[in-house]
Design a protein that fits this description.
globular; SH3 type barrels; single chain; 91 residues; 12% helix; mainly beta
C-alpha cells in the first residue's frame, strides 16, 4: 500500500472498538528529499478523533500513537489493531 491510502483510515481494535482515524505514518530516519524511494518501513501510526470543533479549526485534535507491530490486519479499508491498544488508550 502507498502511504496516502492510510490517510483518515478508521482505526479499530480486534473486538471492533473505534479508536479514531489515521492522521500520519512515522518511520525512522531523516526525511527524504528529491527522488522518493519505493519503500520505507513504517514504525508508528498517528491517529485520533476529529469532532466538529476540530473540523472547524476551533480546537486541535489530540493525536495518539500506535506501534506498527500492534497492527493485526487491514480489512475493508480499516486498520485493525491489537485489543491491548484500545485498553491503553481508553478515553
Amino acid at each position: 500500500m502507498r502511504a496516502h491510502e492510510f490517510q483518515y483510515m478508521e482505526v479499530l481494535t480486534e473486538s471492533g472498538r473505534f479508536l479514531g482515524h489515521v492522521f500520519d505514518l512515522r518511520s525512522r530516519g531523516e526525511p527524504e528529499y528529491g527522488e522518493p524511494h519505493d519503500a520505507r518501513t513504517v514504525h508508528e501510526i498517528v491517529y485520533g478523533r476529529l469532532g466538529l470543533f476540530e473540523r472547524l479549526g476551533i480546537t486541535q485534535a489530540e493525536p495518539q500513537t500506535i506501534p506498527w507491530k500492534a497492527v493485526k490486519a487491514i480489512r475493508d479499508g480499516k486498520l485493525i489493531v491489537d485489543d491491548s491498544v484500545g485498553e491503553r488508550n481508553r478515553g
